[in-house]
Write a structure and sequence with these properties.
Elements lengths: L3 E4 L2 E4 L4 E7 L8 E8 L6 E6 L5 E3 L7 E6 L4 E6 L8 E9 L17 E2 L3 E6 L1
Parallel strand pairs: 2-11
Antiparallel strand pairs: 1-3, 3-8, 4-5, 4-9, 5-6, 7-8, 9-10, 9-11
């Protein structure tokens, strides 16, 4: 069973910076997992923010491009989301997710919830104006 634990959320003013971290319990075939960050604002559905594959290729939601950076360190079993230039509309619960690709290292970048089978409990990010 894969477990994911997020940390690093908090409250900042607009223009501020936060770095989210996610530790995961994947012990083998780490490269077979694509990783992603999602968020859910109050009263809205969960949306994909960023995804990274085994080769460190990335994809981002349009509204965060140039401000957010996703990265992973398999040796530390960790996933990160560096968030700069935060805006009030970035306020949400942020979730770390992992999706396994069978048959080889994961190369399917996706911002779709349905492509991920493992989820953390979330960490709250609040940005005030």
């Amino acid at each position: 069973q894969v477990q994911l634990v997020e940390s690093g959320g908090g409250s900042v003013q607009a223009g501020g910076t936060l770095r989210l971290s996610c530790t995961f319990s994947i012990l083998t075939y780490i490269d077979y997992y694509c990783m992603g960050w999602f968020r859910q604002a109050p009263g809205k559905g969960r949306e994909g923010v960023a995804s990274i594959d085994h080769d460190d290729r990335t994809v981002y939601k349009d509204s965060v491009k140039g401000r957010f950076t996703i990265s992973r360190d398999n040796a530390k079993r960790s996933l990160y989301l560096q968030m700069n230039g935060l805006k009030p509309e970035d306020t949400a619960m942020y979730y770390c997710a992992a999706g396994r690709q069978y048959g080889g290292p994961c190369s399917t970048l996706s911002l779709l919830e349905t492509d991920y089978g493992y989820w953390g409990q979330g960490t709250q990010v609040t940005v005030s104006s």
